Amino acid sequence: MQNKGLVKLFAVLFGLVSIYQLSFTFKNNAIESNAAELAESKIEASAEDRSAKVNEFATNYLDSLATSKETVFLGNTYGEVKQNSMKLGLDLKGGLEAILQISVKDILLGLSNQSKNPKFRKALDDADEIQKNSQNTYLEDFFVAFDAIKGDTKLASPDIFANRSMVGEIDLNMSDDDTKAVLETKMDDYIVSAFEVLRKRVDEFGVTSPNIQRLGNSGRVLLELPGVKDVERATELITTTAQLEFWEGLKAEQFTTFLAQANDVIKAKEKSSTEDEEATTEEQEMTEAEKAIAELTGEENEVVNVVNPLSDLLVTPGYGATLAMVKLSDREQVANYLAMPEVKALLPGELKYTKFLFGKPTEDSELVELFVLKGNRDNEPPLSGAVVTDARQSYNQANKVVVSMQMDSKGAKIWEKMTGDAFKTQSQIAVVLDDIVYSAPTSTSGPIAGGSTEISGSFTLSEATDLANVLRAGKLPASAEIIQSSVVGPSLGQEAIDSGTMSFGIALALVLLWMVFYYGKAGLFADIAMLFNILLIFGILSGIGAVLTLPGIAGIVLTIGMSVDANVLIFERIREELTKGKDQKSAIQDGFSNALSSILDANITTGLTALILFIFGTGPIKGFATTLLIGIGTSLFTAIFITRLLVDWYVNRGGKLDFATGLTKNLFRNINIAFLSKRKVAYVVSGIALVASLASLTINGLDQGIDFVGGRTTQVRFAEPVSAVEIEGILASPDVFGSATVKTVGDDNNLKISTKYKVNETANEVDEEIRTKMYDALQPYLKGVSFEEFKDLSKENKQVGIMDQYKVSPSIADDIKQASFWAVLGSLVVVFLYILFRFKRWQFSLGAVAAVFHDVIIVLGVFSITYKFMPFSMEIDQAFIAAILTVIGYSLNDTVVVFDRIREFFNEHTNWPFNKVIDSSLSSTLSRTLNTSLTTLVVLLAIFIFGGESIRGFMFALIIGVIVGTYSSLFIATPIMYDSVKKGNAADALKKKEEVIDETVVK
User: Fold this and answer.
1) I need a surface site. Which of 357, 448, 761, 934 has the fewest CB within 10 A?
2) In 10 A of CB 186, how many CB atoms?
3) Which candidate, 945, 934, 959, places its Cα nearest to that of 517?
4) What ranges in 868-971 are assigned the alpha helix state H?
5) CB neighbourhood size of 261 (10 A)
6) Nearest residue to 389 via CA among 327, 451, 346
7) What is the pLDDT of residue 691?
8) What is the C-alpha separation between 967 and 958, in angstroms, rounded?
């Protein structure tokens, strides 16, 4: 091998960089471990709810450390250390992953100024229906729906989009096509604005490495918040409408009489309620003797003292538009009082639409302002945030922090009138975002023209910056609803880490031992290269900021099994060269050279399927594809170069390598099996398997997960074992969900509950309703666990209650199904073309793709036949699609190695009959095929047994796929190729030897 010095340099550099990147992870883990120990020592063992307090102390300690500028490691602050450490996915750390759909319908309504045009409204309703079974964007379906019913009506009608708010962009003379182009541009602008609002809100959580990204042009946003504790708050924050409004302020003195009357009404109502309760209690509980004593003592005539329910909650009287100051703890109660119909009826006619809103709480105060704003019948503000074109944090003449704001021409006119009126009446204008008053400035210099103004208030620099951000990005009145979500509790995440680590360790140990057992000292060199390979994989993952998920760990472990293949190919070729009588150095030289073509072809085909999986996958599945792609690249580097360096170093020092041990020296040697003569038997066996699979798929179908059908799945853990059948009967009853599927997951006290109850409704309120119904129905099995404890996903070491939640709307389920179909089909097409390019004969592509179809159908058939009685979940979901694509890659890997040997034998043995070339090629690769398959199976079995319940079905699919894929590469792919070509033509094509690599690379 030439350029050894360069290879050594790269190996050292790659190794050092990987160690450097991983050092941040080790340091971060050490700091977090120290924080946990410190928290344990600070909280007394007898403290109530000690676990929660320990977690809170550790979290606060780490938060304070994260904001510190003090360096803790290699010149980096803790915040930088944490940022550079390995990122853990939701399934390992817990947290929230969601796909949000920004309401394009809301945007269209806003652009049309809430048009009442019947055809416009009908098109919106029709688009809603079309969307249920459509793969188009909402805007595209709206255009289709409108074109179907428009008649003479144009989109650029004055009562639709050619309105005052769209002046300069859409006019009455524009055609529908031109109007559509404008709407598409505006839609993209608004979705970008909504995306910015969501990004800003996500940043407020302070979670490590949140991920937020747009998904195409559909208005969908992928959001990942690993490690977030308060999932309900997170959900509420990201789905609340980003609505910026400007309202005119009223004056507090106008409400003096109203407050007194409201207080009296509330007092009378509460007094009446109290007396009714006491009377009821006395009638039920007082005996005749007690009544007599009460008459003598006069107790029954005692006056019931009722405090002033509303007035006592208004801490200090307000001024201007501030009605009063209220304690933060009393905010909800005051809002409830003011919303009472009896209280609202007390407002005089000119104030009947008054809006009562609270201000933005300041950091160090326990009080919050209660504002009174001038409302109207339609509850629409005089000015909305849609007119704001820019906002920046700045300073006024008194050097106070303010927010400078610029509006468009329409907004400027309305703003000039509002500020003029405010100046005349000495009133305020409230800046309201999501029903919270951010500030209520006054106009001190008369009407403000031009749309340029300042918002003043008691702002800190960061608050002013935040307000400027939301003013710029918060102008879109469009809701965002969660159409797919996955919530994993930290307890389940820690269990996944433990099981993943165990499976990784066991699989690695088995592979390392097997290589030494089979290849002796050469196997030891392969093990060193493999360990270096693992270092590189983790180093690259950490360096590029990739997120490690449970399927990602499975991808790494699978990479270990598949990386053995490259070393096995090389060592088997060296053994063949030694058998031919070549000296050790020549055998090693030729072995590496001859194996390289097969190694490249096999890894490229697997890499292509992994790439397609990366493109079409989301979340954990993308993590699996990422680690697989990285693993393929590092495996090639370590097998071809690092193993070669070690082997050459040992041989050049005078060492002797047999590439075998005493037990394996003659294993799989001198094999000569007539595979082609047995192909008819194989066709019959495969035909029976295919017919049985297709019959079962037709009759039994598959256990489709909610990824493909929509619905909600919740994993619930009980204190004691429960019957899945019994629980299903309870939850499927008409008074609970009407229909439900319950399966045992792992232990008998873990259940996976799926339901389609209100499947088309994705609001948070429906999620809460389902949790409530589930809790009420399961109470007898929960042993006194409260509802809050049952649904709380923030606690670590949680033993009873909801452990994770998953939700998919039917619309996105259709998209997932379509993406899965294209992923599988795309991988087959790409591989067909690659094999055609490499082997120059379509018959080779046909044999390979036929074998892959064979493998996929049988894996599906096994799942269809066995899912009803297997003791683990065999749902068909996105993870299963990842397994299918991996099976495709593995099957092709085997097949390509065989095809490479066939091509080689045609060139070496030009006088051999066609069938002898095929049989000899299959026989000569049998050692490699079985060795690689057995090693991979050992790895998969280790993950299947020890890797956690959540990926057991995924691993089972891979195990079946490896077994079937090994069989098909021997008995399906090659025989079909053989039967589909003419012997002479095939021989002529294959005799054209191709130079795969530059010979200088391996010399």
Assistant:
1) 761
2) 18
3) 934
4) 878-908, 914-946, 952-968
5) 14
6) 451
7) 95
8) 14
CA separation for the pair 387, 192 (Å, rounded): 16
Distance CA(771)–CA(793), nearest Å, equals 12
pLDDT tens-digit readout, 281-323: 444 444 554 454 445 444 444 444 447 888 888 888 878 889 9
Q: Which pLDDT value is given to residue 872?
A: 75
Asked if 566 contacts 935 with a C-beta cutoff of 8 angstroms, the reply is no
Q: Which residue has the higher pLDDT, 189 or 930?
A: 930
pLDDT category at 688 given cuts 50, 70, 90 is very high
Tell me the DSSP string of 260-324: HHHHHHHHHHHHHHHHHHHHHHHHHH--HHHHHHHHHHTGGGPPPP---TTGGGEEEE--TTEEE
pLDDT at site 692: 94
Q: What is the CA radius of gyration of the chain?
A: 35
Q: Which two tokens stand for residue 577?
A: 């060269």
> Which of 671, 705, 911 shows the shortest CA–CA distance to 808?
705
If you ran DSSP here, which 8-state letter would residue 132 be given?
Answer: T
CB 896 within 8 A of CB 921: no
Nearest in space to 510 (alpha carbons), one of 537, 530, 533, 494: 530
Cβ atoms within 10 Å, residue 811: 19
128 burial (CB, 10 Å; 0-12 / 13-18 / 19+) is middle
Residues 547, 211: contact at Cβ < 8 Å? yes
Q: Residue 572: what residue type?
A: E
Residue type, 105: K
DSSP 138-181: HHHHHHHHHHHH-TT--TT-TTTTSSGGGTTT--TT--HHHHHH
Joined together, the tokens standing for residue 759 give 């499947």
- Measured CA to CA, the distance from residue 90 to residue 228 in angstroms comes to 9
Joined together, the tokens standing for residue 566 give: 């490259």
pTM greater than the 0.85 cutoff: no
- Name the DSSP class of 428: B
Show Cβ contacts of residue 827 under 8 Å, excluding neighbours closer than 6 positions.
Answer: 608, 609, 612, 613, 885, 888, 889
Q: What is the pLDDT of residues 101-130, one digit of tens each?
A: 788 888 888 888 888 888 989 999 888 888
**Spatial distance between the Cα atoms of 385 and 307, rounded to a whole number of angstroms:** 42
The DSSP bridge pattern shows strands 367-373 and 322-327 to be antiparallel
CB atoms inside a 10 Å sphere around CB 328:
12
Tokens of 331: 């905010």
Q: 392-397 long-range CB contacts below 8 Å, 24 or more apart?
A: 392/468, 393/461, 393/464, 393/465, 393/467, 393/468, 394/454, 396/454, 396/456
Q: Are the beta carbons of 429 and 418 closer than 8 angstroms?
A: yes
- Separation of alpha carbons 807 and 762, rounded Å: 8
> What are the Cα distances from residue 999, in Å, to 572, 594, 638, 907?
20, 11, 19, 18
What secondary structure does DSSP assign to 913-929, as a single string? -HHHHHHHHHHHHHHHH
Element holding 626 (H helix, E strand): helix 620-637
Q: How many CB atoms lie within 10 A of CB 947?
A: 27
Q: How far apart are the first and last CA of the chain?
A: 5
Name which of 22-26, 288-292, 951-955 the model is least confident about. 288-292
For residues 167 and 873, give the distance between their C-alpha atoms in angstroms, rounded to a whole number. 57
* 196-210, 366-380, 793-807: the lowest-pLDDT one: 196-210
Beta-carbon-side half-sphere exposure of residue 904 (alpha carbons within 13 Å)? 19
Q: Are 154 and 177 in contact (CB under 8 A)?
A: no
Place of tokens 């409400």: 255
The span from the CA of 748 to the CA of 729, in Å, is 17
Question: What is the spatial distance between Cα 478 and Cα 221, in angstroms, rounded to a whole number?
Answer: 13
φ/ψ (deg, to 5) at 876: -90, 110
Q: How many CA atoms lie within 13 A of 829 on its CB side?
A: 7
- Compute CA 784 distance to the chain's CA centroid, rounded to the nearest angstrom: 33
